[in-house]
Recover the amino acids of this structure.
């Protein structure tokens, strides 16, 4: 198998943590219910999902067919039913919890705001009416490029209310990335803000948006601009409209547009192993069902909970566990705009204390960074209300897991390590907090109805304990992606081709221990996971090569003690290989360049200049070899096909000029 090295299982962790009895006694899902769900899914898979879809969603027109496999693997779920996603998250709570806070917001400068379900619905309806007044209709695409403020959720729900398809672009992405996504989606409208607060600085969203629009984006008719930071920004007459001039005068009542279950709810661009980012397309009903069910099953949400998922709405976690799942479940969610360490490393814990957070969900990167600051900081805050902790986005190392358990959870809170992807729409593998005994570093077992397996290169299930293989999902599930926007062939080849359409290939390797627990080992494709964010090596390489001085580039991941992985770039210049101060200056220039092309998260931590790159005789760059060199691992690969063996010493040894401003290991 080409990826043998990745797939070898190395992590051995023996500790087991049972759910605290008091938690287990109150949990929404008990062992008997889980067993009943599992049995139902095993005996009548479609009936299982149909029951849940009827119980959990408010339908405007009931569905009669559960799963349509006619064009598999382009599956359709509940296809002849109709509903509205925003109505399912907002209107349906009016009877029971109209005045309950839906969103408790804290801005980075310290401003706070709370919106009840009634207020959130009114705000969503006003914006939805404004969008209608601009001529937007069901199916039109709207790009949202905003700070993490309540209006970002309002914008998403306003789109859902009128059946428009939103595509949120993370505010850390560059103008060029924004332009690419707007153009791929063919968006008619952009919703943005003057800026947002991050680390005490203004993130200049409007100026990036203006630049994006000046580079192309012919389909954009208007930008709606929220005033958040208040700095002077230019507004283009006719095109740019202030939110505060457009929205408040609208009616707070807006009849939701019924849409078919398969109507696209959103596109979310994510990195793949080749080419440009792909627009993952999610459907309305199946997605919402997955987000709601998992919010209840995995996060055990009840009416008195205060749920804080720290993800930005620019990522899928911020869709499923900020904008949709918790609201569909009627929860109160906390939203914090800014950087985790601003003004100091106590910000997260202070926010938990101030708002009485009971369930806290974040990424291992954040946990590792906060752990490094020591126990005294979190111990200075009252975290006693927290009853459940979660992690997502990357494997968590046992040391960080145990710290999270001991210091943040005071050894009283279950931890749910949730495995899923932009493509899966909702959590797939996770402990059920009142039932599952957890092992640090394992996402434990698939949720009821989710058919996960590990297979070898031939698609045969790997049954020996701890033997690694490809993580696959063997049956379609409602919250799965439907296609890649505008490129169904890429959908088929990326996720289904490897095993002839039989299984969904997640792109991760994993192993299963003797107790049937899953351990995710990382990506098997050329996708990096930097601080829980997916970055395609090809995208970063293309950005580097677009610089006039760069002839060739190869990007690999290097282990990083906080971020999990960091970007390591080998660069060959058009001219001579630079040395000393020249190398440092050029490295800085290339790092800035990548930030401009893609966004700051894609900046290489390390750039190593070389005369050329190791290639096979057929001209393929030997990436695994480069990865081993970047990680200081012994080279075990077969070098007999290497065209230019002498290059290895240069890439590895003193001959290579390295510039590495922020390397941690
Ligand atoms: O490699 C897996 C990793 O993140 C990838 C999905 O990235 P993205 O689509 O950006 O979604 C992240 C948030 C859901 C996966 O293919 N990943 C996600 N969760 C875990 C994980 N790796 C290990 N453990 C997890 N709990």
């Amino acid at each position: 198998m080409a990826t043998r090295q990745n797939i070898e299982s190395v992590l051995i962790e023996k500790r087991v943590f049972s759910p605290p009895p008091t938690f287990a006694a109150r949990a929404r899902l008990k062992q008997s219910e889980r067993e009943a769900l599992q049995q139902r899914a095993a005996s009548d898979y479609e009936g299982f999902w149909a029951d849940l879809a009827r119980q959990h969603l408010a339908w405007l027109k009931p569905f009669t067919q559960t799963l349509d496999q006619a064009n598999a693997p382009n599956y359709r779920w509940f296809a002849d039913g109709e509903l509205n996603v925003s109505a399912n998250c907002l209107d349906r709570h009016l009877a029971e919890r109209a005045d309950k806070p839906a969103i408790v917001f804290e801005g980075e400068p310290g401003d706070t705001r709370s919106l009840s379900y009634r207020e959130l619905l009114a705000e969503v309806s006003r914006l939805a009416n404004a969008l209608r007044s601009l001529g937007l209709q069901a199916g039109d695409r709207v790009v949202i490029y905003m700070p993490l403020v309540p209006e970002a959720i309002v914008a998403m729900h306003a789109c859902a209310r009128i059946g428009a398809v939103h595509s949120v672009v993370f505010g850390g992405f560059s103008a060029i990335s924004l332009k690419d996504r707007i153009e791929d989606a063919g968006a008619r409208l952009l919703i943005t803000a003057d800026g947002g607060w991050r680390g005490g600085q203004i993130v200049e969203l409007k100026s990036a948006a203006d630049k994006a629009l000046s580079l192309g984006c012919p389909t954009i008719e208007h930008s709606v601009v929220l005033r958040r930071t208040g700095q002077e920004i230019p507004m283009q007459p006719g095109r740019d409209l202030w939110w505060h001039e457009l929205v408040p005068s609208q009616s707070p009542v807006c009849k939701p547009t019924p849409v078919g279950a398969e109507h696209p709810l959103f596109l979310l661009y994510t990195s793949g192993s080749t080419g440009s980012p792909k627009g993952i397309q999610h459907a309305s009903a199946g997605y919402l069902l997955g987000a709601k069910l998992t919010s209840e099953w995995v996060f055990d949400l009840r009416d008195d909970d205060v749920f804080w998922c720290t993800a930005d709405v620019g990522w899928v976690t911020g869709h499923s566990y900020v904008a949709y799942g918790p609201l569909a479940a009627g929860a109160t969610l906390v939203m914090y705009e800014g950087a985790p360490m601003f003004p100091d490393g106590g910000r997260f814990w202070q926010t938990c204390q101030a708002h009485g957070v009971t369930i806290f969900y974040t990424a291992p990167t954040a946990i590792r960074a906060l752990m490094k600051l020591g126990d005294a900081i979190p111990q200075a805050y009252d975290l006693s209300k927290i009853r459940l902790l979660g992690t997502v986005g990357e494997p968590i190392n046992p040391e960080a897991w145990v710290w999270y358990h001991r210091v943040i959870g005071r050894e009283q809170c279950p931890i749910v390590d949730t495995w899923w992807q932009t493509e899966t729409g909702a959590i797939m593998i996770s402990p059920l907090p009142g039932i599952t005994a957890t092992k640090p570093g394992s996402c434990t077992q698939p949720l009821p109805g989710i058919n996960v397996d590990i297979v070898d290169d031939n698609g045969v299930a790997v049954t020996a304990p701890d033997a690694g293989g490809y993580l696959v999902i063997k049956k379609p599930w409602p919250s799965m992606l439907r296609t890649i926007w505008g490129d169904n062939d890429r959908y088929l080849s990326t996720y289904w081709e490897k095993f002839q359409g039989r299984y969904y290939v997640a792109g991760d390797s994993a192993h299963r221990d003797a107790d049937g627990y899953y351990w995710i080992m990382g990506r098997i494709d050329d996708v990096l996971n930097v601080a829980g964010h997916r970055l395609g090596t090809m995208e970063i390489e293309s950005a580097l090569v677009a610089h006039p001085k760069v002839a060739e580039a190869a990007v690999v991941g290097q282990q990083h003690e906080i971020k999990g992985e960091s970007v390591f770039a080998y660069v060959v210049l058009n001219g001579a290989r630079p040395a000393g101060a020249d190398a440092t200056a050029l490295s800085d220039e290339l790092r800035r360049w990548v930030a401009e092309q893609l966004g700051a998260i894609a900046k290489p931590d390390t750039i190593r200049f070389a005369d050329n790159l190791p290639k096979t005789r057929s001209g393929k760059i030997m990436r695994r070899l480069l990865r081993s060199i970047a990680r200081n691992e012994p080279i075990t690969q077969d070098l007999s096909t290497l065209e230019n063996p002498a290059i290895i010493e240069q890439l590895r040894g003193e001959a290579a000029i390295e510039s590495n401003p922020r390397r941690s290991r």
Notes: The pocket of adenosine-5'-monophosphate-propyl ester is lined by residues 270, 316-317, 392-395, 417-422, 443, 506-508, 520, 523, 529, 534 (CB under 6 Å). The mean pLDDT is 93. Residues 406 and 412 are 8 Å apart (CA to CA).
